[in-house]
Amino acid sequence: MFSNLLSSIEDVSVYPVITLILFTFAFVLVVIRLVFMDKRTVEEMKNIPLEDDNEEFITNNENNNEKKQII
């Protein structure tokens, strides 16, 4: 069914080539960004899953509770 639908479009063979070029361009941009990324940023991003954000959440939540009690 789809092959009949796609065969009715003129120059349909151009679309896979365009898609491949766009994907390759995006992939190369990501690789270039990773190569030139600051090493400190890489270390911070690497440690994100290991950080404990609960302390910050608890502190912010306690401050909100204190503000509510004052009002």
Give helix and strand order, one letter per element, not per position.
HHHH
Oligomer: single chain
Query: How far apart lie the N and C ends?
Result: 67 Å
- SS-derived structural category: mainly alpha
Q: Summarize model confidence as the mean pLDDT.
A: 80
Shape: elongated
Brief digest:
By secondary structure, this protein is an all-alpha fold.
Task: Provide a descriptive summary of the structure in words.
- The protein has helices spanning 2-7, 14-35, 39-46, 54-70.
- The chain is an all-alpha fold and 71 residues long.
- The chain is built from four helices and no strands.
- The chain starts with a helix and ends with a helix.
- It has one domain.
Chart the SSEs and their pairings.
Blueprint: H1 2-7, H2 14-35, H3 39-46, H4 54-70
Q: What attributes does this structure have?
A:
71 residues, 75% helix, 4 helices, mainly alpha, elongated
